[in-house]
Write a structure and sequence with these properties.
This protein is of the alpha+beta class. It has 14 helices and twelve strands. α5 packs antiparallel against α10, α12 runs antiparallel to α13 and α13 runs antiparallel to α14. The chain binds flavin-adenine dinucleotide (FAD).
């Protein structure tokens, strides 16, 4: 591990100032991802700004009937919050499907959004990785790529975003609140994470000098008909091979609204609004779910070891939508 300097921010303004003009500085919140990456020499910040004591750990009601999740609220406190559990059960389930109890006690919501890929080549500083070292190549393309992307990848990067929380936030149409030297702004969740293109080292649209302060959930939580399904190699303490956040509004057996987002398949949480639109007006039954699943996977592309994810994702979508609708899984 390389030497670095450390300071602690007492206010959001302090934190933003500490990063301004210092491209080698990074925030540290729970530290559960950043410190691992520093130990692996995959990230090399020269200065850490500790934001863990900023007053951003509350979960509050918003005026429009939604909830504001503080960026520093812990993943565990968010998942077990009674309002989250009753109004956004899909979100609670997604968080509890991730990591371990100890990690969730430490990990923050902001840190979860900004966590980096678990691609083996990103972690291994002895191999090429365009995300870690732009221009060095992609070890995964011709290497071991079982956990990699099947949607939205590029010739420069086939890494996936590892978060569970973010998949549910994509389906819920959350908004990310950020503060920087130019003041506050909000970023719709769909625009927060990026596809790799030819700049895979840039994960998000957050400015290098901005801090995430909160995540706003809209009033609509799909509490009645939603679920989060995570398919992985082990039943716990494993990242998703494929995950699905599925939410429906159903009236008299007909789908009135649908949300569908996938994890483990792309560089960002993969929401498919066209497949959602296909479901509206259809009966809440397996045939409708299967048609939507096929539409989501239409452009999917597998590599040497991960082509199995395409049928796996199709089946996971049908199962998640069936569970959300409360109908028998085929
Ligand atoms: C063994 C293991 C298993 C895991 N399994 C899962 C899993 O199954 N599912 C899952 O979703 N996650 C999983 N995780 C990841 C875990 O959820 C993340 O490590 C955690 O959410 C990161 O939060 P943190 O507060 O510790 O972030 P940190 O490590 O403190 O920070 C992560 C990044 O976010 C930046 N950052 C932090 N807060 C802010 C902010 N407010 N504004 C701007 N930038 C910020 C930091 O600069 C850093 O770059 C696992 C982690 C481990 C170690």
């Amino acid at each position: 591990m390389r030497a670095f300097t450390y300071s602690r921010a007492d206010t959001v303004e302090d934190a933003v100032r500490a990063l301004a003009g210092n491209p080698d500085a990074r925030f540290v919140a729970g530290g559960t991802n950043l410190l691992d990456l520093m130990k692996a020499d995959a990230m090399r910040p020269a200065h850490l700004v500790d934001i863990s004591r900023l007053p951003l750990d509350r979960i509050e009601e918003t005026e429009d009937g939604g909830l504001r999740l503080g960026a520093l609220a812990r993943n565990a406190d968010t998942a077990w919050d009674e309002r989250v559990r009753s109004r956004y059960p899909m979100l609670s389930k997604a968080i509890l499907a991730g990591a371990s109890a100890q990690l969730r006690n430490m990990a923050t919501n902001g840190g979860n959004l900004l966590q980096r890929t678990r691609c083996y080549y990103f972690y291994d500083s002895g191999t090429p990785c365009n995300k870690r070292e732009p221009g060095s190549g992609c070890g995964a393309l011709t290497g071991v790529n079982r956990i990699h992307a099947i949607l939205g990848a590029s010739e420069h990067c086939i890494a996936v975003h590892p978060s569970d929380l973010c998949v549910a936030l994509a389906a819920l149409e959350a908004t990310v609140r950020v503060t920087g030297p130019r003041g506050e702004r909000t970023i719709p969740f769909a625009e927060f994470h990026r596809l790799p293109g030819d700049t895979p080292h840039i994960d998000t649209t957050l400015g290098a000098d901005e801090i995430v302060t909160a995540i706003d959930l809209p009033a609509r939580g799909f509490a009645e008909h939603s679920t989060y399904l995570k398919v992985r190699d082990r039943a716990s303490y494993a990242f998703a091979l494929v995950s699905v956040a599925a939410a429906l509004e159903i009236e008299g057996g007909t789908i009135r609204a649908a949300r569908l987002a996938l994890g483990g398949v792309a560089h960002k949480p993969w929401r498919d609004t066209e497949a959602e639109a296909m479901l509206v007006g259809k009966p809440a039954e397996a045939a409708s779910f299967a048609a939507a699943a096929q539409a989501v996977l239409r452009g999917a592309k597998g590599h040497a070891h991960n082509a199995f994810k395409i049928p796996l994702a199709e089946r996971a979508i049908v199962r998640a939508l069936s569970e959300a609708a409360g109908v028998q899984t085929p």
